[in-house]
Prior knowledge:
mainly alpha
Amino acid sequence: MEELIPKEALQSINNDSRFMHFVCVIGRLCIDVATFKHEESVGEMASSISCYMRDNPHCIQDEAITSVRCYIESACREVELEHFKSKKHWCPNAVVG
């Protein structure tokens, strides 16, 4: 997002907010993409990618990874949307597009 979020805005975010939900989704899915191949090699299959492949048996591994990356991109857009919506409250003179 390339801009610092003011302390006042961060203080207004609670654990049940959509902002925090999507930040956690992004973190979890990014870790799954980064560690999937290693975890698979040691027999650990509790990742979003393995769950996606289980739910979509026709899907190959690369397609599952691509789908999870699409979820990450969607969650990033949601974080940006929540950021801009909250910006109206802590920066009333801001131009929010």
